[in-house]
Design a protein that fits this description.
Layout: E1 4-8, H1 12-23, E2 27-31, E3 44-47, E4 50-53, H2 64-74, E5 78-82, E6 85-89, E7 92-96, H3 100-106, H4 109-124, H5 133-141, H6 143-158, H7 167-173, H8 179-190, E8 205-209, H9 214-226, E9 230-232, E10 237-243, E11 246-251, E12 262-265, H10 269-274, E13 276-277, H11 282-289, E14 293-304, E15 313-317, E16 325-328, E17 342-351, H12 362-376, E18 386-397, H13 403-414, E19 420-422, H14 425-428, H15 434-448
Parallel strand pairs: 1-2, 1-12, 2-9, 6-15, 10-13, 12-19
Antiparallel strand pairs: 3-4, 5-8, 6-7, 10-11, 14-17, 14-18, 15-16, 16-17
Bound molecules: flavin-adenine dinucleotide (FAD).
Flavin-adenine dinucleotide binds near residues 14, 32, 237 and 432.
Amino acid sequence: MSKTILIIGAGPAGLSAAHLLCKEGQKVIVYESHSTAVGGLSQTARQGGFLFDIGGHRFYTKAKEVEEFWHDILGEDFLRRTRLSRIFYNGTFFKYPLELGDVLKNISFFKGCEFLASYIKVKILKKKEIHSFEDWVISQFGVSLYEAFFKSYTEKVWGRPCHEISKDWAAQRINNLSISKILLEFIKNFFNIRSKQNIKSLIEEFDYPRKGPGMLWERVSAEIQKMGAEVHLNHHVSSMVSHEGKWQLHFSNGDSSPMADHIISTAPVKTLLKGLKPAPSQTLKSEIENYKYRDFLTVILMFKQRDSFPDNWLYIHDSRVKVARIQNYKNWSPEMVPSPEYTSYGLEYFCQKDDDFWSMTDEELVELAIREIGIIDLPFTRVEFSSKVIRMPYAYPVYDHNHSQRSELLQRELESYPGLHLAGRNGLHRYNNQDHSIKTAMIVTENILNKSKRSPWKVNQDAQYLEEESRS
Ligand SMILES: Cc1cc2nc3c(=O)[nH]c(=O)nc-3n(C[C@H](O)[C@H](O)[C@H](O)COP(=O)(O)OP(=O)(O)OC[C@H]3O[C@@H](n4cnc5c(N)ncnc54)[C@H](O)[C@@H]3O)c2cc1C
């Protein structure tokens, strides 16, 4: 028998769930607070023939079913891109992921000795307890490499010292990077040893829709509507009410949804739990109140000039500037600019939506971005210049030292709300990429359809979901 399922959020998790449920003949209604765009953090924004990604979204996954899902929808519209993303440190560009040959080429003999000595030191004097991101990285690479290649960028991203950042984040994001791997890669390159098939790894190549990630989500949204689903933009859910085994949503404009059997929420769990009725325990409420987020602001500079830098994006490890990453959109897909004569950069800043940076005017932010491009000395001109500022709240769920306990408490208490399912990145307060978010959607839809009983919380925690490389 067909069930009615209400979905909060038209991002990757919400739309994937909707797609799978529609294919099974269920009645699906999606509510999205954005007034014009679907895709959530993975949307594509537009201005005057230019397209922009919120952050630069590589499509890669180890989950076959996720890969099939997005390839079935976009097919030939996926491009295979070669990755180049260097670190700008001390006036020099270093390849990322780090390659020994490249590091040695770009640093002085003395700096090389310093990196090596601090690495050997930490391996001999092994620290017993690892509490923070700082402890974890130093234990793997030594103090000097940590300070050069991890500290400044990570502190820009999270806005706090690395010793206050959870070790879980390091273990999740830098899981597969080790000095032994870097050394092995160096030896293989030196002797020109490659695997028989010479398969490029996920680190070196990735898929990307020719018109940005939003192209996938716009198409999923159109397909589900053809299958009978409703997608309502400009509908901000303010509360979720359970009554006699049925669920109803209320919106900030005063409207309400029809009654339904299930809700899938991909909205930030902290905001959603405030409107959950019956209300959760006081303990859970105060724990979830501690969930923090990092907000994200992109200043886009568009201009007429063919020359730019060769990378898809750059990591900026330079304390003279506030920018953390710079995207070069046409190196993701040539269709992100009106023609090859044009270039657009996205200068990415991490901040809090209640801080002074977030509330600077667009004009002030654009002037700052132009100054910072000058300091880094990247190709830029004011010919046919235009700009845009995109503010994206709730971009990064923050992990603190109590992350695991808080998440366990939330999972336990939600068991007493049958029919309520959390999925996605902010829905689970997990540092989930698109593929993880889609996978959580797949799991909750199977649970709703009684095809299995699995936990979406396990995604991005088990070894098989961990990525091969370190940072986004
Ligand atoms: C800077 C950056 C770079 C990234 N790079 C990559 C990458 O390279 N590769 C990759 O795979 N992933 C990347 N990601 C992660 C990717 O963006 C997310 O995994 C994905 O978008 C999460 O999907 P989601 O549906 O869970 O959440 P979201 O994309 O956040 O979508 C949730 C939706 O819910 C809506 N919503 C929220 N609250 C409400 C409410 N109360 N009522 C109604 N609607 C609501 C929001 O408006 C949003 O549209 C990146 C993320 C960021 C921030």
